[in-house]
Amino acid sequence: ARKVILDCDPGHDDAISIIIAASKMSNLEILGITTVAGNVEVQKNTTNALKVKDLLGLDVPVVQGAERPLVRKSEIATEIHGDSGMDGPVLPNPKSRVDDGHAVDFIVEQILQSEGKVTLVPTGPLTNIALALHKAPEIKHKIEEIVLMGGGTFGNWTPAAEFNIYVDAEAAKFVFESGIHVTMFGLDVTHQVIATKDIQQRLSKVDNRVGKFVSELLVFFGDMYEDHFGFEGGPIHDACTTMYLLKPELFDFKHVHLAVETKGEFTYGATAVDLLGVTGRIPNTHFAYQVDQEAFWDLFEAVLESYGEV
Ligand code: BDR
Ligand code: CA
């Protein structure tokens, strides 16, 4: 089994990403779930992670991380995720408790302790990952891959910047420049997996509690996306990371150089993706640009079905 740490800010699509990683269909060993300030305050993201852990009956540590970005003030996305960060479904208050310690130390320790390499799966701002790499650069050679959701050739938070990168562009810059194998799922590809009303309808037929939870997430998330962007449903951005880990062939990639903008007046947090190779710089990113939508939804439905009858 491939060892992963899910670093997230759940978050509707973060929750879905956890569900995929934890399913029987996946061959992943989840070392832990770490949380970061992002969609809402880190404490709320942690509570949501614990709720998802309880729903799935998962036996993995949940460790809380950074409360704020490295340099900038926090920004949150309640207009997309609601006040709780995961509005829509009503889950009981978590029975599980958050584990002691800080996510950054947890990430460093897990990587150093692990016999083999570890894959990091960040689906929120990259603050924890940057702090871990800064604190213990020796972990670099034991990180197999960073599979992240963020960025793209257009923005959703500003015209130029995607939310996860915008919230902590300094952290993102540090991660993309780290020399680690980065596989990136940005808006160019995540907007190809929109949970439209048809998809919502289809998934609502999955008759188990995980399917029900996901359906409720998608209804709320879809309505927010419709109000905010005029979309027909919500793109399940973060799910691309763990779907890729289940089945890499779902996606097509270009190996490109990518730079994170940290200075621009109108472009702070943008990712400059060198698709045509105009910079001549050495590629640092495996940029996902296309997904097989039919195969994606088929597999996703099978993942939900794999949770069984209850
Ligand atoms: C990203 O921002 C968050 O709102 C989502 O969970 C996703 O990680 C999309 O821009
Ligand atoms: Ca997220």
Automatic annotation (TrEMBL):
Residues 4-298 form the Inosine/uridine-preferring nucleoside hydrolase domain. GO terms for molecular function: purine nucleosidase activity. CDD domains: nuc_hydro_IU_UC_XIUA (cd02651). Keywords: Glycosidase, Hydrolase. The keyword Hydrolase applies. The keyword Hydrolase applies. GO terms for cellular component: cytosol. GO terms for biological process: purine nucleoside catabolic process. This is Nucleoside hydrolase. The lineage of its organism: Bacteria, Bacillati, Bacillota, Bacilli, Bacillales.
